Triacylglycerol lipase
Amino acid sequence: MSYGECVKSHLRAIAIAAAVVIGSGTLTSFTASTASAAPDFYTPPAKYDTSPGSIIKSRSTPIFLQIPANPRPFPGKGTTVMYTSKLQDGTPAAVTGTYIEPFAPWRGRGARPTIVMAPGTIGQGDECAPSKLVSFPVAVDTKNLTLASNYEQLFANLLLYQGYRVLMTDYIGLGTPGVHTYVNRVEEGHAVLDGARAALKYGKLPADSPVGFWGYSQGGGATASAAEMASSYAPELNIKGTYSGAPPADLQKVLKAVDGSSITGVIGYTVNGLVARYPELGPLIQKEASPAGKAALKKLATSCIGDTAFRYGFHRTSEWTTSRKSLFEISQKYPQIQKALAEQLIGKSKPNAPVLVDTGINDDIIPHGQVLEMVRSWRAQGADVRVVNDGTPPIFPSLAVNHALPYVFSTLPASQFLYDRFNAPS
């Protein structure tokens, strides 16, 4: 079997597995277990190197279904790392993630590349951190009644099979102290770019080692943000390409689409994250939220996507307000909320390397139109942006199937895009 055929075989296997996991709205049927990660690892030391990308601490982490081997196990050797990043105001912050050295050799041009994976929506509670779900991809926290699933490990395996080194970030506040600032453009971009810096430092790699980004949904927004922030925030990185699938580039438009869907609860993640960074929004939310809404926001702050869908799926945010208006309608009343949402808009700066954008024409969670608006803005600035339009017909509207399937179907073109970028002449 040729290398290309081997890659396609792995892609088919992962696509089938991914369809089972995320095609059902991320509600998996794996046997439940409790998260095994020791919580004290996720507490930063009192003092640490505040330079972005610095390694604060690390520990060995077995990967699910790992096969022992020398010098590296299959599909790779995992390490949980804590590294330094920044909040949107520049304050240093500790972030965790998983660094994996692959078993497979790199068969492309030059040195082995590093890909930073930005995971899709897994939750807002600390138990949802992807690095806590590397040894086993599903966990149930019986105390808080949360159901977490790291479905992104399937796609990490795809990259490991091709010989890529992988760092999967947990993002700011996911596992570590503080609120996870879900879909915060600046902080997610920082976590990805500083994740690349951390991977190079941990791997003792040259500063000009080739780097790429991979992300879908929440992760697509994070990699899109990283791509356009790279020139100003991390100009030293040798970024070859970015895959950004279904990025929530315009939160106002995404807010309207998500409300009433199987994952309505992620709107609560967004509200919690915005209030954490824009404290002036707190009194407004308290004024507008009903007792049920306040209880939902509190519960969602410690929830993962599985239990979020169970509890709040197909409900509407109008159930959370005293006026019975939706949170989108509420947002239109206040300039403070409009300003905070506008600051999350992606597409205002030019990416410094080629980007592949994947979008579903019938995506029932992340509207197709707002993705194309981001693409048009980037192209107007002279960026090299390619688009894959998934034409899957509408399937069970609002169930998120039309959001999940394009990720599965884009796996091959995304993989080929990054491989071609890493093999392009310098």
Summary: The chain has two domains: 3-250+351-422, 255-342. The domain at 3-250+351-422 is CATH 3.40.50.1820 (Rossmann fold).
